[in-house]
Amino acid sequence: MTTDRAQAEAALRDASAVTGRRWHLAERLDGGRQTGAWLVRAEDDSAAVLKTTADAEWAARIVAARGAVDVARHAGYSTPAWLTAGTTRAGIGYQIQEWCPGHTSDDVDTATAEALIAVVESQAGIDPSPEHCWTDFLQEQIGAGRERLRAESGAPRPMLAVCDRLLLDADRATWPRTDMVHGDFRPANVLFDGGSVSGVVDVEAIGSGPRAFDLATLLSHDRVDQDALVRIVAAGTDAAEPVVFRACVAVVFLDLLRFSRRDEHSTADGRARQRRLLTERAEWIELLTR
């Protein structure tokens, strides 16, 4: 997604026509790994958050995600309501969601880990979008797409070796399909207020599949202390068979390295540190899940 002002203003004009409410940009919000967002206000000065994209595939994903967000919220999942979502005539995809107070926690200690685990546990059985199932993506990555993933990750040999071990027997496992998957479950996307989770944001990739995938994603965060790591791994092997959780870890870690190689904002030193961290983290997870 992008936060280009002209794109955001075009999306607001469309949203205003659709909803009958006049929205205007207030300020840019920072956060998330790839993008920020815009704080917008309606005529009554109520606040909301706008996100936009010029990518046609992602625009379609946003529109499709709205129904899944409604399903998740109806099941009690803590994510802000979407007020509208659509695509402008120029192909700009957008969504406007309720403003959610709170702050992120970059350090994942024991207390934070327990709160994040509880969020993922609340995703059990929600099945918000069977037609957009993360299990299909994961099975493709460990099957026909496995060699491509390995090559495009640029992972060092030790990491490729441990990921190969984490993937053992994954192709013969029974993969869950009916949990909710956030798709980018990182500390930057979870808001805390008064010591508890106030909302989970950046849910555009929402789908069905194994909730263990979100715990694997959480483990790719760099600042996770040792006790938190142990607790998250234990929760992962409770959320799915250990063989499935281990495979999720391998795919998440290799896919993150692939993303970093394509990210124009990444640096050679940063990618090297990331490779070392994820290799060591994968080795710890292998030991903890034997």
Question: Any overview of this molecule?
Answer:
The structure is a single chain. By secondary structure, the chain is an alpha+beta fold. It has two domains: 5-98, Phosphorylase Kinase, domain 1 (2-Layer Sandwich); 110-288, Alpha-Beta Complex (Aminoglycoside 3'-phosphotransferase, Chain: A, domain 2), CATH 3.90.1200. The protein contains ten helices and nine strands. The strands form three sheets. A five-stranded antiparallel β-sheet has the order 1-2-3-5-4, sandwiched between helices. The chain has a two-stranded antiparallel ribbon with strand order 6-9. Helix 5 (146-153) packs across helix 9 (242-262), helix 6 packs antiparallel against helix 9 (242-262) and helix 9 (242-262) runs antiparallel to helix 10 (268-288). The radius of gyration is 19 Å and the shape is globular. The mean pLDDT is 95.
Main sheet properties? 5 strands, antiparallel
- How many runs of DSSP E, i.e. beta strands? 9
Helix content: 40-55%
Task: Write down the overall geometry.
Answer: globular
**Helix and strand sequence:** HEEEHEEHHHHEEEEHHHH
Q: Report the sheet-strand fraction.
A: 15-25%
Number of helices: 10
Which CATH class of the largest domain applies here?
A: Alpha Beta
Distance between the terminal alpha carbons, to the nearest Å? 39 Å
Unreliable stretches:
none
Instruction: Give the strand order of the largest sheet, numbering strands 1, 2, ... along the chain.
Output: 1-2-3-5-4
CATH level 4 superfamily of the largest domain:
Aminoglycoside phosphotransferase (APH), C-terminal lobe
Mean pLDDT: 95
At the third CATH level, what is the topology name of the largest domain?
Aminoglycoside 3'-phosphotransferase, Chain: A, domain 2
